Automatic annotation (TrEMBL):
High-level lineage: Bacteria, Pseudomonadati, Pseudomonadota, Gammaproteobacteria, Enterobacterales
Domain EVE: 2-147
Name of this chain's protein: EVE domain-containing protein
Recorded coiled-coil stretches: none
Organism whose genome encodes this protein: Gallaecimonas xiamenensis 3-C-1
Domain of life assignment: Bacteria
Residues passing through the membrane, by range: none
A Pfam family this chain is assigned to: EVE
Amino acid sequence: MAYWLMKTEPDLFSIQDLLSQKVSPWDGVRNYQARNFMNDMALGDRVFIYHSSCKDVGIAGIGEVVKTAYPDHSQFDPQSPYFDPKASPDKPRWTRVDLGFVEAWPAVLSLARLKADPALAEMALVQKGSRLSVMPVSSGQWQHILGLKP
DNA sequence: GCCAACGTTGGC
DNA sequence: GCCAACGTTGGC
């Protein structure tokens, strides 16, 4: 089983929303590298849910892949902010996955804490200027993160 | 709200 | 294929 990390703005969708809704709408990803990682996800893979652009930035809990990559419908919808005129149903460009809820942590594992940890230095998350919103987490890294869980 | 850093676009 | 300009991300 692989581990991943996905960013979300909690004002739009948080770990608490995942808890109450049970399944997430993970659409609107418009970055090729992030998309390719989503395409690599397998059923049951675990996903660290990271809260970005908010007061308490960091890992807030865990989800799991309950539906693997399929076309993100918003790319075909002219009304959607995620509309992509270069995409069509027979040639979809963007994908999404569905996540289920696994656990919400009692506190966020802060970005400052993650940055301070030499064991996690290789993660794109802690690298200066990185904006990647979906990334793999190696087994050494995820075991280490679970050890830091608040 | 600021702004550094990034990925994408499009003219040439 | 280069690269300047642009819009966006995301920490602070």
